[in-house]
Design goal:
With about 150 residues, this protein is mainly alpha-helical. It has helices at about 5-55, 60-70, 75-105, 105-120, 125-135, 140-150. The model has no long low-confidence stretch (mean pLDDT about 85).
């Protein structure tokens, strides 16, 4: 075997090592992305749970929020604004959750939250809220909300 033959074998082995390294790195990146997605999903679910828990622990805020959804005419302007801020907070969480899930295809959990949104926005105050605040949200999320609430009509 000549030096040129050994050099060719070395190049072949080196090329195979580079390909093996690239495959290994691709697998590692994919696993990291899956892990990041799962962590973000868990954080989103925790944030939504904490939101509802906070609302449940404050009877006056809960009353204002549910009145804003069911009977907004019964509230003062200040109470209505407070109810709107609570709804803003919730829909901001949902918007973030939706945009993340839309990117990663998390359909099952999205269906659950769609039912909750549909129920809330089908109420008199929810419809009023959405007509006044829709433009505050990302176009993709606003279109999604329009679609799920249209299924209710």
């Amino acid at each position: 075997m000549t030096i040129q033959d050994l050099g060719a074998i070395g190049e072949l082995v080196g090329g195979a090592a580079v390909i093996a390294t690239l495959i290994y790195l691709a697998i590692q990146v994919k696993q990291s992305n899956v892990s990041t997605h799962r962590n973000m999903y868990a954080q989103g679910a925790t944030a939504i749970s904490n939101y509802w828990l906070t609302l449940a622990k404050d009877p006056e805020l809960y009353r204002t929020f549910t009145s804003m959804l069911r009977n907004p005419e019964s509230l003062s302007r200040q109470e209505l604004d407070q109810g709107y801020l609570v709804m803003d907070s919730y829909l901001s969480l949902m918007e973030s959750y939706y945009l993340h899930n839309a990117e990663y295809g998390e359909e099952i959990s999205q269906q659950r939250w769609a039912r909750i949104l549909r129920r809330m926005l089908s109420l008199t105050g929810g419809q009023k809220y959405w007509s006044e605040r829709r433009s505050s949200f990302h176009d993709q999320f606003a279109t999604y909300v329009d679609q799920i609430t249209a299924n209710d009509e």
